[in-house]
Amino acid sequence: MTLQETAWSYDQMASHWDGGKFNRKNGIAQHARALQFSQHKRTAIDIGCGSSGRIIELLLDAGFTTEGLDISTEMLRRAQARHPDQTFHQADICTWAFPQKYDFISAWDSIWHAPLESHESILTKLCGALEPDGILIFTTGGVDRPGSRTNPFLGQPLYHAVLGIPKILEVITKAGCICRHLEYDQHPEPHLYLIVQKTG
Fold first, then answer.
1. Per-residue pLDDT tens for 174-187?
2. 3-15+42-198 maps to which CATH number?
3. Is the dihedral of CA 195, 14, 64, 86 positive or negative?
4. Which of 32, 64, 94, 126 is the most buried (most CB within 10 A)?
5. Which residues contact 49 (CB under 8 A, 6 or more apart)?
6. What residue spans of 20-141 are helical by DSSP H?
């Protein structure tokens, strides 16, 4: 699947993240852990922000000036309605150029939808968009080797791809970042999140 096809799938499912069945605590404890490593609370961006607004609200409460990015038109329409005073960007993370550097970047359950061949460049781009000592939190699959697959979710096809842990650690190190935390937070499911920091 292309990211544009994934965007269409998310357009069809957007109401799920606004509904009562979605757990708004998803990822919040992990972000709270990441915020403990944050030395500066100036600028932040939520990559693949979706429509729930929960991560943006957490970052706003922490004192950040916060932006959101998503490729789904419907997700962003709902996000903007929820937070009309915030800046949102509709773009493909594979080709989008960051307008500035950030002290905190979240990419929770988002960048793994990009084509596998783009993952190294995306991760390098995210690390490069951090201010010195800036924090990046992102999710991936807790596997050792690169791979991809497409599975249905809420009746729509969703593509996921992963670089594998050894390659991820290699990429972030090469990009001038240090892994501060790596956790299988939904064990035994291979859902993995990492907190990395830009070297000062």
1. 999 999 999 999 99
2. 3.40.50.150
3. positive
4. 126
5. 55, 56, 68, 69, 70, 75, 76, 79, 88
6. 28-35, 54-61, 73-82, 119-128
Listed by start position, the domains of the chain span: 3-15+42-198
Among residues 141, 142, 140, 160, which one has the least CA distance to residue 150? 160
- How far apart (Å, rounded) are the C-alpha atoms in residues 72 and 97? 17
Cα 31 to Cα 195: distance, rounded to the nearest angstrom: 9
Burial of 156 (0-12, 13-18, 19+ CB in 10 A): middle
Q: Is the pTM of this model over 0.70?
A: yes
**Are 167 and 140 a contacting pair, CB within 8 Å?**
no
Calpha distance 12→199 (Å, rounded):
40
pLDDT digits (tens, 9 = 90+) for 85-106: 999 999 999 999 999 999 999 9
Residue of 130, 113, 121, 110 lying closest to 38 (CA atoms): 130
